[in-house]
Amino acid sequence: MALALTPAESTFEILNGHYDVVLGLAGGVAAGLLGRSLVANLGGVAYGIAGAVIGGQVFLPATSAVQAVVGGGLFGLSVGVSVCLARAWGAFAFTRLWLASRGRIPWEFMAFLADAHRRGVLRQVGEVYQFRHARLQERLADAGPTAGGRPGMDDE
Fold this sequence. Notes:
By secondary structure, the chain is mainly alpha-helical. It has 2 domains: 2-61, no CATH class; 91-142, no CATH class. Helices cover 59% and strands 12% of the residues. It is built from 7 helices and 5 strands, in the order H-E-E-H-H-E-H-H-H-E-E-H. It has helices at residues 2-5, 21-38, 41-55, 65-86, 88-101, 109-118, 134-142, and strands at residues 11-14, 17-20, 57-58, 122-125, 128-131. Strands 1-2-3 form a 3-stranded antiparallel β-sheet. Strands 4-5 form a two-stranded antiparallel ribbon. Strand 1 and strand 2 (17-20) form a beta hairpin. Helix 2 packs antiparallel against helix 3. The longest helix has 22 residues, at 65-86. Keywords: Membrane, Transmembrane, Transmembrane helix. The chain crosses the membrane at residues 17-35, 42-62, 74-99.
């Protein structure tokens, strides 16, 4: 639909496809404004560049409903993941899953923190957990992965 509103001469062929300069510019400005509202200045620039690259892509019309749904779904999923990761909760959820899959933290991380708080190892200040004992924090910060792959489990 948007392609029908732009002049035909604004497209050019690139990488076996078509790119519309007007749509790319519009997509870059819109995405830059969205990025600026979600994250700091650098986020606005990154969103703007991504919006310009993606927004100008011109695809052939879908030949079936399945193709249209899959294409739209993948695009929506990629935008949703991008926006989610730009927020603190999304970055935390991704990081938590990444570290748990690598065996660096327990899978039930929030339950682990609550248990440590209940046992007196951590204190809670607002939404933040802090170590009660500076020596324990220093010990855990200094401990890197060992031969067994688990942090802080070196032989003493």
